[in-house]
Design brief:
The structure is a homodimer of 157-residue chains. Chain A is an alpha+beta fold. Chain A has 2 domains: 41 residues, Winged helix-like DNA-binding domain superfamily/Winged helix DNA-binding domain (Arc Repressor Mutant, subunit A); 79 residues, Alpha-Beta Plaits. Helices cover 34% and strands 29% of the residues of chain A. In chain A, 27% of the residues are buried. Chains A and B meet through α1, β1, α4, β3 and β4 of A and α1, β1, α4, β3 and β4 of B. The first copy, chain A, binds a DNA duplex (17 and 17 nucleotides) through α2 and α3.
Amino acid sequence: MDEIDRTIVNLLRADGRTSYAELARRVGLTAPSVQDRVAKLEKNGVITGYQAVVDPEAIGLGITALIGIIPDSSADHLAICDKLGAIEQIESCYFLAGVECYQIKVRVPKMADLEQLIHRVAGIGGVAQTRTTITLSTKWEDRPQPIPTGEVEHGVD
Amino acid sequence: MDEIDRTIVNLLRADGRTSYAELARRVGLTAPSVQDRVAKLEKNGVITGYQAVVDPEAIGLGITALIGIIPDSSADHLAICDKLGAIEQIESCYFLAGVECYQIKVRVPKMADLEQLIHRVAGIGGVAQTRTTITLSTKWEDRPQPIPTGEVEHGVD
DNA sequence: CATGAAAAGAACTCCTT
DNA sequence: AAGGAGTTCTTTTCATG
């Protein structure tokens, strides 16, 4: 992971469809070399995939909500995660250092869907309480930040 | 936005580098037709971009935190948003229907960076209080959910 | 709105340094 | 780890139904 790799990753985060040829021009290498580097970045788990970024409102998911989840003290967390994972409306799920052990972000078309979803989450075994907050607007999301230069090991080379 | 468009968007969310040729095979059209549809989806704001998905830990951003922000009653929200937007460690920013008007998600290499960041946020004019929660683990993030079929208008065609 | 053909460019593999 | 050459595939444009 040198300066060139960092540049490649930054470029691919800004535009995931940048061609190897274009990347090669930007970093001053040839396409096969860049392809080689990208393959290694993927293999080493630095780049884990590529996604089209979609406007949720444009596909009928106009309502976004954050739900904090408080489990029972004796809750089975593996089971809770499994059950949460099965709910496809949950876009992200964090395990937190707080009373609300989990925070999930959900997207639904209508308020009625949100209500149904909350009941479903609240009904999961081991879930004591939920707290839902509606997002009124998304200022920004998934904004890539530059890779810090002071670097860290990442396993296999 | 018909069934074919939905399939294309779903495929591109799952893998943003899928070629037009491959998409064409999957939806039973030719590459130029698919290219045409994708161009329209981009033009209409359904697809807003493409991103490589990067493992934050692998690039030295091992610490993720959620920060709730409570503003003064008389706060200038445009100014707050501007100041928050200038902080590049903030990956996302939501305006919420709650006491904590904003929730931001930040990523930093070290705890010392988080501390510095909290002070910076707390120092923004109009910010009365912040509440930071460390994420102990990310169960999943940015998981694309299928596009609902009962559809919604999205402006220009 | 989709297709087919044709030209340009990119990706991929192999091989050399 | 990078560059060069050659092959294959894709992208892109354009004319047509």
